[in-house]
Amino acid sequence: MEPLSAANTQFSLKLFKKISEGNTSRNVFYSPISISSALAMVSLGAKGNTAAQMFEPAPGQKTEDQIHSSFNKLMSELKKPGAPYVLSLANRLYGEQSYQFVEKFLNDAKTYYEAGLEEVDFKKKSEAARVDINKWVEKNTQGKIKDLLPQDSIDAMTRLVLVNAIYFKGNWEEKFPKDATIDEQFKLNKIQTKPVKMMNQESKFPLAFIPEMNSQVLELLYVGKNLSMLIILPNEIQDETTGLQKVRQHRFCQRKFILVP
């Protein structure tokens, strides 16, 4: 599972670089595991040149089955029963009812990704299908994502829609006092700042320094200490960018960390 995690980290940074091209100061929020697992599901039905372009084994994984098995194991690990956090990762296939899908593709999608097929009438009732898909996404994200698919995004020519939904809610291991929240200036770049509400607390947290990126990395643990948030803070901003360009340039998962006491 470690090779998959490393590969997914590299994928997430490359995708982040692509998404932020042309506007490096805007906010970007996305789930790499949702995107990579969705692409992995698509690869189950790919053959020939398409499969060759999509399939690139992570180091230590030599077959497609190993990759799909690793995704299955990773998702099972993330959705531990009785965990002190809520993490829902759900997949669903919506297929045109008159279309004959390859049985192996459906079986593999169900086995590896728990993605069942729901038959819908895209040809005559595409709008109703779109509404149903949006309702499923809204339900599986606890109402956080509404109207994922806009009007006219699905029509009579649609044959298959692959949907992934992820939801996470956790509590900090070290809680921030509400009365310690204050207004501070947040640096958008070297020149611009914006007033925002910032949480505050004094405690001991894992802190590291990455020399190649001239950045600090702070780890905030969630209750249970199985999951955490990593916050990257550049020590200085040299131009009108956010200062995180070096994060895009370096392979973050292969950087050497210097622990700060």
UniProtKB/TrEMBL annotation:
InterPro entries per the record? Serpin_dom, Serpin_fam, Serpin_sf, Serpin_sf_1, Serpin_sf_2
- The record places domain Serpin at 13-261
GO molecular function, a single term: serine-type endopeptidase inhibitor activity
Q: Name the major location.
A: cytoplasm
Q: Is Cytoplasm given among the entry's keywords?
A: yes
**Record-annotated membrane-spanning stretches:** none
Q: Which domain of life is it from?
A: Eukaryota
What keywords sit in the KW lines? Cytoplasm, Protease inhibitor, Serine protease inhibitor
Localisation per UniProt entry: Cytoplasm
Which Pfam families does the record cross-reference, listed alphabetically?
Serpin
Would I find Transcription among this entry's keywords? no
CC annotations in GO: cytoplasm; extracellular space
Family, per entry: Belongs to the serpin family.
**Stated name of the protein:** Leukocyte elastase inhibitor-like
Native species of this protein? Sinocyclocheilus grahami
